[in-house]
Amino acid sequence: MIFHVESSDAGQRLDNWLNARLPDYSRSRIQDWIKRGHVRVDGSTSWPAHTLRGGETIDVQPVEAAPLQAAAEAIPLVTLYEDADLVAIDKPAGMVVHAGAGVHSGTLVNALLHRFDELSAVAGAMRPGIVHRLDRFTSGVLLVAKNDTAHRRLAEQFAGREVRKTYLALVQGEVKTESGRIERPIARDPVHRTRMTARLSAGRPAWSEYRVLRRFTGFTLLEVRIGTGRTHQIRVHLASIKHPVVGDTLYGAAAQPGLGRYFLHAHRIEFRQPTTGDPVVVMSPLAPELEAWLKRL
Question: Is there a catalytic annotation at residue 135?
Answer without folding.
Answer: yes
